[in-house]
C-alpha cells in the first residue's frame, strides 16, 4: 500500500500538523509597535505620535477605577460585561442586546470575520485602509477586493458597488477614516447604503467618531441588520492599552459573537475603567478640546515647513509632504531616527503623506523641532 | 434561470451570511460566571469559591505595578511582550523564542486550535476535562474524542492510544488535573509520551503546577516539538482578571502564533503586573503556603460532614459527596442558594463531587457554616 499510508506516514513525521490555511499564512504583524522600534534603534522615542494613542490620557476617574480594581484582579471579569453594556446602551439610547463588548475593535473584528468569512469568501475594503482588518480576513482565508480612495476619502459608493460585483460578505468602511483623517457625513453614508447589497454586511468602523464634527456618526437604528458599528475606548477615551472596544448592531448579529468569543477574555480593571470613562463627560469634552488645539498646532507646524496638512476629524493630522511615497518615507525615517514616532499611509497616492497623532505641547514641540531637520535629511 | 441565481437570491435575502460552521455553532458559554449567577439570584455571593481564582490576591508588587501603569494605559501594550517573555525565559531557563504570551490560557488555546484544527480534524481529550478547550475545538469544526478518567486521574496512556487510533492532531492533558485536583509525576508523563503518535501535538496544561508537589512539571526540553505547555498568571499568581497566560514550546510552534494572534491584544497594565508578579518569589511562596493550609481546612470541613476530600495538587479541593451526580448537584445548588459559589465536575462518575477553591479563613468559614445545611437540603 504505497499510496495513502505512505503519505500519511510522511505527514506524521513533520511534527505539528497545521491546517492548510495556517500553513499558508505568513507570520506577519499588521503594525510594528513603537517598543519594537525603540529596541531596534536602541533608544526611547522623545514623542510617541505614531499610533493615534491619546497622550492626553484617560479620565482621572478611569485611572482611579483601574487602580481600585488592581487588588481585585484575582477575580475573572464579568463574562457578560453586564454593567458596561448597560451603560453603553443608555449612552447610545439602545438596548444592551445591541452591544457586544470585546478586546478592542481588533478583537471584535477578528470574531466578526471568523463568523462570516471562510476560505474563498469575498470581502471589500479600501486600498490602504486598516491593515488589521485585512489581516483577519486573510487569516480566515477570505479574498480581499480593494477599491481606491476618491481623493483622500474612502468612497462608499465604490465600496458598495464593488461589494455587489464580487458578492462580498463584508464591506469595511471607516468613518472618520484612518489613515487620512477624512470623513463623510453620517447621513451621506446612510444614503449610500441604498446601494449596499442585501447579502453584504457593512462593518462601519467609527473608532474616531468622538472627535469628529456633529453629524459624522451614522444616524441608523441599532437594530438595522445591514451594518455593525465598531467603537472603542482606545482613541479619544485614552485607553488603548486596556483593550476595550464594542460593537453596536442588531441583536441576532450581536448574539452571534457568543458562538466564538473568548467569554472570559476581558480584563476586569479595563471593564471598570471603561465604565468610569464613559461616565466622565467632562474629561471627554476636555480631550476633544485638546485634540482640536493639537490639530491646529500640527497643521501650523506642517505649513511652517512648506507642507500641507489635510483636514482631520480624528485625533491625528495627515500631512501631505508634497512629493511621492519615497520622499514621505524618507521624512518618516528621519523623524524616527530623530526620536519622533510617526507612521504613514501604506498605499499610493496616500503614501505621499505622514500621519501625526495629537498630543500635548511638549510632544508637539519635539515634533516641531525635528521636522525641519527631517525634511533636510529627506531632501538629501 | 431558476437554479443557481434563485438560490443565491434567497441566500442574499437572509441578512448577514455566516460560514456554515458558524451557522452550526450554538451560542454557548463554557462556564456561567459568578456575576451572572449573582444577577440571577439577586444577591452577591458570600464566598466566591467556584472558579479556582486566588482569593489570596496578587503580589503587592503586581498590584503596585498595575496601579502605576493605569495612567499610562493610553499606550498600547508592547506587541512582542518583550520584557515579560525575557523574564519568563530566564525564570524557566529557556529562550524568549520558546515563549508566547497571550490573553490567558483560554486565548492561547483558541489560537492553537485555530492553527491546527479545521472541520473534521480529530482531537482527543478526557471526558469531563476543561470545557473551554472543547469549546475551541468545536468552534473550529474539530471532532472531539474523549477517553474516560482512570479512577480520578486523567489517563495519559489511554489518551495517547486514542490519539493514535483516531489520528488526532492534538491531545489535551491537564497536569495537575482540573476538576479533580489529581496529578501525575512529570516523569511519568514523559515516559508515557513514548506512545504519543508522531503527528499528534500534546497540549500539556500546567495551569495549576505552581501548587503541585515538586516533580509534577514535565521535565522536557522546551525545544521538544512533541508538546506545548500552557502556564498562567490566573491561578497561583492571583491575576485571573488580568488575562495573562503563556505557552512554552519549540520556536517553530511558538512563532506560529504570530500568524493568527491579536498582536496588540495584551493589556499594558497586565503585562506590567505579570512582570512584577513573576519577580516576587516571596509572595508566590506565601500563596503556596496559604493554599496548603486551605486545602487542609477544606478537607477537614468535608470530613466533618461525612464527605471525602480527594487529594489535591491544585488550589482547590474536590469533594466526593458519596452518592451520584444528582445528589452532588443538589448539594451544589443548595450551597449556591446559601451564597457559596462552587462548581462541580461535568461528567460521570466525577460528577459525584463538588469542587471548592482555596481561600482565606473568612471564606472557608462561610463554606463550613453552609455545608451542613446544604447537605440537609440535598438529602430532602
Automatic annotation (TrEMBL), chains A, B:
Transmembrane stretches, by residue range? none
Q: Which UniProt keywords apply?
A: Aminotransferase, Pyridoxal phosphate, Transferase
List the cofactors: pyridoxal 5'-phosphate
Transferase recorded as keyword: yes
The molecular function GO annotations come to: pyridoxal phosphate binding; transaminase activity
- Please give the coiled-coil regions recorded for this protein: none
Boundaries of every Aminotransferase class I/classII large domain copy? 49-371
Xref: Pfam families: Aminotran_1_2
Top-level taxon in the UniProt lineage: Bacteria
Checking InterPro entries in the record gives:
Aminotransferase_I/II_large, PyrdxlP-dep_Trfase, PyrdxlP-dep_Trfase_major, PyrdxlP-dep_Trfase_small
Q: Does the keyword Transferase apply?
A: yes
Give the matching PANTHER family. HISTIDINOL-PHOSPHATE AMINOTRANSFERASE (PTHR42885:SF2), HISTIDINOL-PHOSPHATE AMINOTRANSFERASE-RELATED (PTHR42885)
What is this protein's record name?
Histidinol-phosphate aminotransferase
Q: Which organism is it from?
A: Ruegeria marina
